[in-house]
Design brief:
The chain is of the alpha+beta class. It has 17 helices and 7 strands. The radius of gyration is 24 Å and the shape is elongated. 34% of the residues are buried.
Length: 346
């Protein structure tokens, strides 16, 4: 990987002129870097900015995060998805408070011991917050390295990731590891774009990039085809009574664990209302919606129900507008039906 040895100087010069202005970079404490990196997993920067601002206003320190009630944490995370990230954040925050006196471990190995912190996140915190010369290798960085070196290995395989990690560590500038890692992140996010569409004319490594020279940017990085998602047909029931909508809480484990939802069942769910003891006085079609998870796709049909009474199964609640805004974290999976709820609750 000789191309990598030529990368640091032009990359850092490029970064000085092109670094993205991001709130966690203005004050790169371990807490700020950590929360931002967890939020950015599977999520675009533009979508994270407002969440990060609200999160820091509500939970400005690791001690606040460790102590917050889970329902409040889930409400702050609502809409970001992959909710186990938030639960692991709190588990790790409690480790920091209880095991380390509120101060983050200063080593890469110590950071790896925190809940939900993998090699990439540990590398980001260690290099950016503590100046430890260790790589932070995510999908963006793997793409850059694959193209720069012309490496057609499967980037989803641990062996490939380990080899690229070691190659980066060998060229990492020990006086600026955080800048180097953030420059690699920015290069992958803004220039060496996915799906065969890199902006090579803007790249500081264009002169010595093997994939560009060989016309292979559309082929690299290599990843095997994804398996088809399992499709579930579901019926979502919007139950209304006296200006409120019914919610139930999902089991703690599994998909969307612990979040609140509109009652729903696998289609055709013909007996669901009777099974719940719900007597409808009006039932109308609420349209359809779709939500794609990593391995499952929900295809939903909505039924809008005005109920005869206020009785609900144990554990369910009636939520008005203020409760929906403040208290109950609902996943984006039901976003297709939000307008129907907004029109009827008060």
């Amino acid at each position: 990987m000789d191309e990598l040895t030529r990368l640091p100087i032009p990359l850092l010069r490029w970064y000085q002129e092109n670094a993205r202005t991001l709130p966690w970079r203005s004050d790169p404490t371990p807490y700020h870097v950590w929360v931002s990196e967890i939020m950015l997993q599977q999520t675009r920067v533009a979508a994270v900015l407002e969440y990060y601002r609200r999160f820091m206003e509500a939970l400005p320190t690791v001690a606040h995060l460790a102590a917050v009630e889970e329902d409040r944490l889930m409400k702050l995370w609502q809409g970001l998805g992959y909710y186990n990230r938030a639960r692991n954040l709190q588990r790790a925050a409690r480790q920091v408070v209880e095991d380390f006196g509120g101060a983050f471990p200063h080593t890469y190995e110590g950071l790896l011991g925190l809940a939900g912190v993998g090699e990439y996140t540990a590398g980001a915190i260690a290099s950016i917050a503590f100046g430890v010369p260790v790589p932070a290798v995510d999908g963006n960085v793997l793409r850059v390295v694959s193209r720069l070196t012309g490496d057609g290995s499967d980037i989803t395989k641990p062996d490939t990731k380990r080899r690229m990690w070691a190659a980066l560590k060998a060229v990492l500038p020990v006086r600026a590891p955080g800048d180097f890692n953030q420059a690699m992140m920015d290069l992958g996010a803004t220039v060496c774009l996915p799906n065969g569409a890199p902006l090579c004319e803007k790249c500081p490594a264009a002169e010595f990039c093997r994939a560009r020279r060989e016309g292979r940017t559309g082929e690299l990085p290599y990843k095997p085809p994804k398996k088809a998602r399992r499709v579930e047909e579901r019926v979502v029931f919007l139950l209304f009574h006296d200006g409120k909508v019914a919610l139930r809480q999902r089991p703690k484990g599994g998909l969307l664990g612990g979040l609140w939802e509109y009652p729903n069942e696998l289609s055709p769910a013909r007996d669901a209302l009777a099974d719940w003891g719900i007597e409808p006085v009006d039932l109308t079609d609420g349209g359809t919606g779709k939500h794609i998870f990593t391995h499952i796709e929900w295809r939903m049909t909505c039924r809008v129900v005005e109920t005869a009474g206020a009785g609900l199964p144990p554990g369910w609640v009636w939520a008005g507008r203020e409760g929906l805004r403040r208290d109950y974290a609902l996943p984006n999976a039901f976003q297709s039906f939000t307008h129907l709820v907004d029109d009827r609750v008060h």
